[in-house]
Amino acid sequence: MLMSLRDDVYRKVLSGEKIYEHRKVFPDEPVKAYIYVSAPTKAICGIMYLSNRTSLLKWKEQYKDDAECVKRINEYLSHHNYAMEINKFERTNSIDLEQLRADLSKFVVPQMYYYIENTELLDYLEEKLDADGFVVTHEYEFIDSSMICKA
C-alpha cells in the first residue's frame, strides 16, 4: 500500500505522538504502508506497519462514560470510520516526487491510499528505499480513553 500523510501528521508519527491512523475506509488485515508525505515534503520517506482495525463506533460505545472521549470520537466520525494501530514506523531515505515521476511515468500521488502489490512501484520502492535506523514502535497493552482519537 502507498498511503499519503500531511506533513504535520508525519511529524506526529516521527515524534511518537500519533499512535493510531484514522481513515474512512481501511482493510481488515495488517498493512505495510509506504508513506508519501505531502507538501512541502512531497516525498516517500518511510514505512508504517498497521494492524487491528477498530471501528470508531465501537470505541464510542466502549468509552460512552467519558464525555470528553465521546466528543473527540464524534469529531473524528465526521471524516473517519476506522482507526488502525501504528505498530511500527521505519524512516527511510526520501524519494521526492520529481524523482518518482522521472523514474516511474505512471506514478500517481495517493489522495488517501492505494494498493501496490505486484506493481512496478513496489519493485522500485523495495530496491530504492533503505531504512536509516530511526524506528518508532508502540505497544497497546494499556490503552485508556485519553489516547483515543488524539493527534
UniProtKB/TrEMBL annotation:
What name does the UniProt record give this protein?
A: Putative transcriptional regulator
